[in-house]
Amino acid sequence: MPERVRAAMVRQAINHRGQEFSTVYADCVRILKEAFGTTNDLFVVSGSGTAAMEAAVGNFGRGKKIACLVNGKFGERLFKIAQRYGTATEIASPWGTPLDLGRLEEALAGGAEMVTLVHNETSAGIKNPARKVGTLCRKYDALFVMDGITSVGGDEVSADEWGADVVVAGSQKCLAAPAGLSAISVSAKAWERMTEPRPFYLDLAAYRKSATGKLMETPYTPAVPLFLALREACLILAEEGLSARIARHRRLADAVRAAAGAWGVSLFPKIDADHAYSNTATAFSYPAGVDDSAFRGTIKKMGIEIAGGQDHLKGRIFRIGTMGAIGAPEVLATLAAVQYALRKHGFVPKGDGVMAAAEVLG
Amino acid sequence: MPERVRAAMVRQAINHRGQEFSTVYADCVRILKEAFGTTNDLFVVSGSGTAAMEAAVGNFGRGKKIACLVNGKFGERLFKIAQRYGTATEIASPWGTPLDLGRLEEALAGGAEMVTLVHNETSAGIKNPARKVGTLCRKYDALFVMDGITSVGGDEVSADEWGADVVVAGSQKCLAAPAGLSAISVSAKAWERMTEPRPFYLDLAAYRKSATGKLMETPYTPAVPLFLALREACLILAEEGLSARIARHRRLADAVRAAAGAWGVSLFPKIDADHAYSNTATAFSYPAGVDDSAFRGTIKKMGIEIAGGQDHLKGRIFRIGTMGAIGAPEVLATLAAVQYALRKHGFVPKGDGVMAAAEVLG
């Protein structure tokens, strides 16, 4: 997190029912709408991305037939949430492989009223075809719920163009604010189809009511310091410019992928014309013989943390994040440490990945 | 908030799946258990007090007969939450007047399986008889859900002794940490009676699982800076000592009540042998003719904010909080400003409330 963002939290508490908080909240919403690519209503929730995922399903999906596209951990989480509220069908592909849009169309033809999709599935490093899913949802008049937690603010998101009715984002990913807040946008079509009973803390009707009075407020006490930090992070985003920010994320991911190519280490996802490598998290398959915990331990000793795999991918992949307030220095240092650790733990890189990345970044 | 608490949020993000976060979380839990008066499991939720209230009802009350004791806004909120999960009965008294424990016993005899109570109802400045409610719940083997949001850490709470199965607290009240976190304790009896389906983000089974591994974690990304601040606030509580802290809160409230007596301004609550004036928020009835917004405007111009009434009490009462990291200076300044504003807006105080308060504090 940038120093400005962290420093925004130091000040004394402000009244969350006053003019100043209202301005802070409005600043966040205005800038986040641009990052979402939406003119829909948008709210900030005091809770992590999972809270916003539940708000999406819990406000609009109770009792509905829900088709859940799953090719990673977060798609699976949306499926689990959908099971608590409606009749959920999992349209699963192995993690990191293309989604089956043919099966999605069958589910829609069979009456699915809501579709859930993770736009950028960081658990497997794959970017899913949100625009195509949106087109199918429009064709069959279903609500399209999209998890943009790790793409909003770091990759292109065009919620309105794609027809994404309910979109969620997290504060601590590409927005580079502290963890603990999430944002959610709601289309007119979604508002018309609200369901009951809804969760209470996450009841978006209450959020809408509190946001549209004389002051822009939240229904329940918000996490004030986190709002102050998120506002600062949004101002930084606006100063950088959204398209420049997206280009930066893409260039950093390009650099990481160039290193993979130079080393001869495979990227984990299997992509096709509809799917792409994530620009905010790159997943590598471990070369045979490299031990996950020894490898990441070596890197950690140099003061750098990279992620392993989650659930059944533990030990099979490692992941390098390129999201938020990072640039060439962080990426070069990380790749140098990875290159060293690959060698140390028994894999001989074909070529110099660090220099290949520098070619992209220079 | 003390400077130490605010400063704890400035540092760079830490990994919420690492040893350090685990220690931070464990420190919070250890100290909060003392403040709750419990040896039960206790979790910290990234969400405001309302989230923890919903967790209490949503994890243990689905489909149950729930009797809700209501004599203020927060009791009403618990009733509204209970309506979304079970068959809720409101046992209402006018705000700020004694609860009807006779009707509670009838409801329990009639099969109520859960009872909700707000221990310290700040909307009306009244402290409710938690011990007596607990005794009745034990007699009829019902689950006792207690909102201790504005009493934990500032007034005596003895969850285990009272038989309070599920107790919630908020970070920004007597604990003097930032808003945005809440805490919830769960008895063995409550665990045995978990209901389904539960909310997802607030599913306490997931909280329990994540807290009992090798590291103490939360199921979903926590609001890390707020945990760092809460830990600091808990350490301050431990340094002051819980009983000294409670005595401080009581003395400050005594001082405010002494001022009311000297002025001849009535306290709003009607108390009896079972009920008491709140030690963390004192509610005053407006003397005839004093206009709420002009009165509080005068005080605000002096840099001091006091609360008005909520909902139907708007314009009828004003409230002075004495919770968290405050002492004699804040109380004396507030009372001086109130005394000045009473005079300015048409009420002639019988005597000098500021000096009466100083007698208590000196």
Write the SSE topology.
The structure is a homodimer of 362-residue chains.
Chain A: H1 3-7, H2 19-36, E1 41-46, H3 49-60, E2 65-70, H4 73-85, E3 87-92, H5 101-109, E4 114-118, E5 120-121, E6 126-127, H6 130-139, E7 143-147, H7 159-162, E8 166-170, E9 181-186, H8 188-192, H9 204-211, H10 224-240, H11 242-263, E10 276-277, E11 281-285, H12 292-301, E12 307-308, E13 317-321, H13 328-344, H14 353-361
Parallel strand pairs in A: 2-3, 2-4, 4-7, 7-8
Antiparallel strand pairs in A: 1-9, 5-6, 6-10, 8-9, 11-13, 12-13
Number of strands of chain A: 13
Radius of gyration of chain A equals: 21 Å
Which chains share the greatest interface?
Answer: A-B, 43 and 43 residues
* Helical residue percent band of chain A: 40-55%
Number of domains of chain A: 2
What is the SS-derived class of chain A? alpha/beta
Q: Please give the CATH architecture of the largest domain in chain A.
A: 3-Layer(aba) Sandwich
The general outline of chain A is globular
Low-pLDDT stretches of chain A are none
What is the CATH domain class of the largest domain in chain A? Alpha Beta
Name of the CATH superfamily of the largest domain in chain A: Type I PLP-dependent aspartate aminotransferase-like (Major domain)
- How many helix segments of chain A? 14
CATH topology of the largest domain in chain A: Aspartate Aminotransferase, domain 2
Beta content of chain A comes to 15-25%
In round numbers, the mean pLDDT of chain A is: 97
Oligomeric organization of the protein chains: homodimer
From the structure above, extract its key features.
homodimer; 362 residues; alpha/beta; Aspartate Aminotransferase, domain 2; 2 domains; seven-stranded mixed beta sheet
